Please model this.
Amino acid sequence: MHREPEERLGSGLLAAVGCFFLFSSVDALAKWLGATYAVSQLIFFRALFGFIPVAVVAWRAGGVVTLHTQRPWLHVLRGVFILGALSFYFLGLKYLQLAEAMAIAFTAPLFMTALAGPVLGEQVGVRRWSAVLTGFAGVLIMVRPDPEALQLEALYILASAFCFAMTSLITRIMTRSEQQAGIMFYSTLGLFIPSALALPFSWTAPDPVSLALFFAMGILGGLGLMLLTTAYRNAPVSVIAPFEYSALIWAVLFGWIGWRQLPDPAIWYGAAVVAGAGLYIVRREARLKRESAQAARG
Model:
């Protein structure tokens, strides 16, 4: 009688591990291709080939009817933030190691907590604010605000994390009325249109190997989104969240394989602080939801 929840939890955790591996693979491909091609071109091919997994999701969900939307302007706003998140992140990857970029990107949950009040009207207590401030202290450890060591390029990743946090908060609102296939489709369209318009100003003809890597980047990114949805459908956020930090392990591995790079010790120390703060926030939100549900029942 108890096997089904356990099997669902297991499939959710397996999907989470797979999804963060795929996202890290996309980051590695973007860094490799970013040495030759403009950010707009990276985003264009990421979106172009990303339509393939989106089409599969839409077909399985019922076809074109699932693309109907009641919130078109929210899709536009979300598209702007997704474009900003990818643009800043790919730009930062040109200058930072994979592990450095990934560790700084972990600040997205901190931004989400800080913005939950003004965007969603949620109350953020002293403990969660303390966790947010602690997490940003971890960022300072990583970027080393010393004039001789300061990495201004890290600001690109912080800007990306902010945009990603806004994307996630808007998604919370949209899931009340929109279907997954529609959200994925309009997100991809929001990347495709502006990057296509920018192509004449930044086009570099890709060779066959690069084209294959672009294809892989789009497919893996789309599959990663599908696995992420599966993970959250089968396991609680508080259980999935710790596995997000496995992406740092993949980033270190890919960084060593592709560029023989290992992160500075400061990255590990700062990442530990940021991860600890993020996990505290997730755990506390999960506990507050449980307490709220229990109070509602009785």
The mean pLDDT is 82. The first helix runs from residue 3 to 34. The CA atoms of residues 40 and 197 lie 9 Å apart. Residues 3-297 form one domain.
